Amino acid sequence: MDNPVTGRRIGLVVLGSTGSIGRQTLDVVRSLPKHFNVIGLAAGGNVTLLEEQAREFRPRLIYCDRDSEYVRGRVSARWAGMEEMAAHPDTDVVVTATLGITGLSPTLAALRAGKAVALANKEVLVMAGQLLTAEAKRHSAQLRPIDSEHSAIWQCLWGEHPDSVERIVLTASGGPFRDTPPEELHRVTAEQALRHPNWQMGQKITVDSATLLNKGLECIEARWLFDVPLDRIDVILHRESIVHSLVMFRDGSVKAQLGVPDMRLPIQCALTYPERVPGTAVPRLDLRRIGTLNFGTPDMRRYPCLSLALEAGRNGGAFPAVLCAADEIAVQHFLAGHLGFTDIAHVIEGALAAHTGPANPSLDDILAADASARAWAEDWVKAKT
Amino acid sequence: MDNPVTGRRIGLVVLGSTGSIGRQTLDVVRSLPKHFNVIGLAAGGNVTLLEEQAREFRPRLIYCDRDSEYVRGRVSARWAGMEEMAAHPDTDVVVTATLGITGLSPTLAALRAGKAVALANKEVLVMAGQLLTAEAKRHSAQLRPIDSEHSAIWQCLWGEHPDSVERIVLTASGGPFRDTPPEELHRVTAEQALRHPNWQMGQKITVDSATLLNKGLECIEARWLFDVPLDRIDVILHRESIVHSLVMFRDGSVKAQLGVPDMRLPIQCALTYPERVPGTAVPRLDLRRIGTLNFGTPDMRRYPCLSLALEAGRNGGAFPAVLCAADEIAVQHFLAGHLGFTDIAHVIEGALAAHTGPANPSLDDILAADASARAWAEDWVKAKT
User: Fold this and answer.
1) Residue A67 burial (10 A CB sphere; 0-12, 13-18, 19+)
2) B256 vs A159, A256, A284: nearest CB
């Protein structure tokens, strides 16, 4: 099956190919071998896996954070920057599955070249949503979500008029500590936080799912992707992660997208849009077997990071960038055993309180806010330990 | 808000205006007074209510099964046949909310005149689905479902390619006897059968919901509306009637439409399509308050009418017409106290076994099958009582 627009295979660039989403993206490519040409692969430090991927998918362009003579010498791909592969003439879809701020510049390059961007790196949109959506509009480039919640909303909006949306409802599993008494949360370990009940994901996002900071980021992400203000976006608890999210329309009708928790489905949707390609890779949902779906209200005492994220989203400007930066540092130190679980919220709260900056920040303002929030958070950790 | 196609108010004909769906249709018209011109109203025997409706909505055309001098003399509307009002040049949408076979001929007239038909009278499609869908296609007329399940599926398909559908999943509340031991079902009364746990509906459909015959009719209806074979249509039990139905796509993604059980929502959808008109008439769904949604497999021992309906659907020809006719007679006699609840299945089973007829019946063949099944059922009841 070829790209419906150009009549050829879909030219694919995967930024962050050795991470969890990157690897699952290549799983989808593997399951649909006639659909894609892998134009470029980019990774952080996992040289061994990147080399393996390069030998299998034979990209023309390759990039690694660690400039590796080893990779350069052993794969036939040409070394290239992420911006270059994102904007390459043969690229149709760029998967941004990098961590944190790394994905911002190549995502901008892709949008400015009119490419479709399949976005898994939500921090990019949280930090620079206004900028990215404006660039996408200006260059008729498409932002497609990979997050399961946003893919759900996106799918529910196909064939609907944007003005028809009354509310967006994001579901949250509640993470591994949804039943832990709030007063015991300061004692939980990184190992416990990494045991997500429903999803297999990277470490950073798994911890963010335990604090529900991730759900706050998703609200801000939804705000930009679907142009719906934050006060019309709700979060509800849904233990089973089967209903991936819902849209309520202005006539009172509600649509939801459901499926077994498997990221390959939203990835495939984002890669092959507007086509739904037949696939057996994703197990089929059987509600009869599942039996019961539960819904509830998140307890803000248990999830202070969710409140902080929503507040940062409402404040706008570079506050969401500060939120992301402070969280990234705090989670690193929590995983390394330097901080307690409840300290994550304290670091974020402090960094947000310390921030001052313009209401309509430029990219430079955002990068500056990111850097100073990181420094602030590192100082906090040092003082604490 | 005007008709998006013609730029004027939507010209509406309501066939069966004094029944449950007819009255709720006029509720929707009342809540959106600037959207509609009521061109015609037609009713069965409820002269008093029809006259009241005519005084309120001032239709140009009116019809009553009982030719009522009283109505003729007191309302300014001209007396007209249902076919005439369905095909009238000022008519845009015809709501077919009549009972049984009555709606067939005016529905055909509407489709042949290229009108949109909002169909609540599922028997019409069950009996003559092939004929009606062929006529709709030939005259570029649109069949829009009013049944909540089919409206759900229809809404889930907006913006999707028909080839993408893998399965359709219809939800069933299970009716008032979902927890009654099957061996006690022969003793249940009409009064008990009319106490539906979730929906306020007419008497006939409420009994059909207790036997799940209704769900079998809905499978056949879905088969024609969405051009999906019966073996790709599933029925699942869902006690709460919040998820109105689901579509599974060929990539493994599932979409569902949800809402509080209120027929005004699917009615409004069918009347105002492709627009979603803002409305506060329908209460908003709050899953946090509902808490739990349950799903399960229907027990065919409890619901023999569902098996019979699916068998009639698979057999095709005029079998579905025989199914509808035998059921209509059986339910009448059950409501009148002449038959037990479990006799309904016996009447249907016997009528289906007695039927022989062509595989591709004409309208006359269907009407003949209908008449002989009614006679067969009446004879069975007479012999029994």
Assistant:
1) exposed
2) A256
Which candidate from A282, A288, A296 shows the least CB-CB separation from B252? Answer: A282
Say if residue B55 is in the same domain as residue B134: yes
Q: With an 8 Å Cβ cutoff, are A282 and B251 in contact?
A: yes
Q: What is the mean pLDDT of chain B?
A: 93
The SS3 call for residue B327 is helix
Do residues B219 and B297 share a domain? yes
Q: Is the dihedral of CA B275, B278, B282, B285 positive or negative?
A: positive
B131-142 CB burial, b ≥16 within 10 A, e <16: bbbebbeeeebe
Q: Closest chain B residue to A28 measured between Cα atoms?
A: B251
Q: Tens digit of pLDDT for each residue in A64-91? A: 988 777 777 788 889 889 999 999 999 9
* Chain B residues closer than 8 Å to A288 by CB: 236-237, 295-297
- Using alpha carbons only, give the angle B39, B41, B47 rounded to the nearest 5 degrees: 150
Whether A251 and B277 lie within 8 Å, measured CB to CB: yes
In a domain, residue B335? The reply is yes
Q: Are residues A22 and A127 in the same domain?
A: yes
CA distances, A375 to each of A208, A347, A352, A359 (Å): 20, 11, 13, 21
Quickly list DSSP for B72-116.
HHHS-SEE--HHHHHH-TT--EEEE---GGGGHHHHHHHHHTT-E
Instruction: Report the pLDDT value the prediction gives residue A7, as an integer from 0 to 100.
Output: 63
Ramachandran sector of residue A317 (left: φ over 0; alpha: ψ -120 to 50; beta: rest): left
Do A256 and A218 share a structural domain?
A: yes
In a domain, A153, yes or no: no
- Are B158 and A158 a contacting pair, CB within 8 Å? yes
- What 3-state class would DSSP assign to B301? coil
Taking an 8 Å cut-off on Cβ atoms, the answer to whether A252 and B161 are in contact is no
User: What chain B residue is nearest to A166 in terms of C-alpha separation?
Assistant: B278
**What range does the domain containing B232 cover?**
161-261+286-304
Top pLDDT among A358 and B153 is at B153
Model ipTM?
Answer: 0.94
Q: Is residue A15 packed enough to be buried (19+ CB in 10 Å), middle (13-18) or exposed (0-12)?
A: buried
CB A166 within 8 A of CB A248: yes
Q: Please tell me whether residues B54 and B142 are part of one structural domain.
A: yes
Question: How many structural domains are present in chain A?
Answer: 3
Residue A146: pLDDT over 60: yes
Q: Are B91 and B116 in contact (CB under 8 A)?
A: no
Among A304, A335, A360, residue at a domain's last position:
A304
Q: Give the CATH number, domain containing residue A323.
A: 1.10.1740.10
Q: Do residue B245 and residue B270 come from a single domain?
A: no
Q: How far apart are CA A364 and CA A382, in angstroms?
A: 27
**pLDDT tier, B1 (very low <50, low <70, confident <90, very high otherwise):** very low
* Interface probe with A: pick from B156, B247, B253, most Cβ of A within 10 Å: B253
Whether residue B279 and residue A251 make contact (CB cut-off 8 A), yes or no, is yes
What CA–CA distance (Å, rounded) separates B269 from A164? Answer: 12
Q: Looking at the domain assignment, is residue B155 inside a domain?
A: no
- CATH number of the structural domain spanning residue A113: 3.40.50.720
Q: Based on the domain organization, do B361 and B332 belong to the same domain?
A: yes
Q: Which residues of A touch B278 (CB under 8 A)?
A: 250-251
Cα torsion A256, A262, A263, A265: sign: negative
Cα–Cα distance for residue pair A121/B150, rounded to 1 Å: 38
Sign of the CA dihedral with B262 first, then B116, B92, and B156 last: positive
Q: Helix, strand or coil for residue A95?
A: strand
Query: B291 vs chain A: nearest CA distance in angstroms?
Result: 5
What does the pLDDT read at residue B311? 96
Q: Least CA distance to B274: which residue of chain A?
A: A160
The answer to whether residue A76 sits within a structural domain is yes
Asked whether residue B99 falls in the same domain as residue B202, the answer is: no
